[in-house]
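On clarity, I found the account of how folds are encoded harder to follow than it need be. Since the whole study asks how a given chain folds, the encoding of that fold should be made plain. The format is easy to grasp once an entry is in front of the reader. For illustration, here is how one protein appears when written out as sequence plus structure tokens.
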Amino acid sequence: MLMRFQMDKAKPVDTPLNPSLPLVKAKPGDKRTDITTYQELTGSLNHAAIFSRPDISFAVSKLSQFNSDPTETHMKAARRVLAYLKGTINYSIIYGDATDAEIHVYTQAIHSDDYLSILGFADADHASDKDDRKSQTGYVFLINNAGVVWESHKQHSVALSTRDAEYMALSDASREAIARTHLYDDLQIITVQPPLLYSDSITALLLTDESAPYQRSKHIDTRYHYIRDILKKDQIQVDYVPSEENPADVFTKALSSDLHHRCVLGMGLRPFYPQ
């Protein structure tokens, strides 16, 4: 599907988006590009992002926000994603076990030889949208040390602080965790324990405890407090992970090359060369 956009003419790059080039809505005087071509390109990229390339999810989420009025800058950024895919064309999601040397230690905390374990990472980038100051949510769930479901989207309301943005992302991820549990129950697959969900925000983790003395949390939409209820019922677990070890970071912002590929490796995406 993507081949019609002439990927072979794109010079390979090592990240989907340029972290030093913020993308904003078109302004008067900006040179527009063909809307149909742009929408076809973002739609094709979205297909890849959903099914096999979580590493471009943030880029696709961001670029799709300009589908109604794309500029040449947006088109150039979209073609950069093509160039990135060209340079990583052999990347595949590879499932392993907790003994893999390249896998971070967090998977070992819930590893079992007999039962399935669900491990999730959530993150947010506060007020990252330059046009409306909404934050970006990202999360990924791993099974056998590789991604099975991931998400990158702009939050529906403006978060007043980094803590609030991270808490909202954690709550969204918790709903996905429960959905995973129900799916495996329907399939009669036994999980070793409730899903374990990591966040790199200590204050957001504290906010999941409804007894915590955070009166200012009352302004947060009540639907985000869902996580408190399922925690009380022991349906999920939450814990802290350092920011530099959180693979969900790649779903919230454009990263430098080193950070991007660290996240990519952390969710089981790596070069694969068939024998």
About this structure: The beta strands are 91-93, 119-125, 136-143, 146-154, 196-199, 237-240, 269-271.
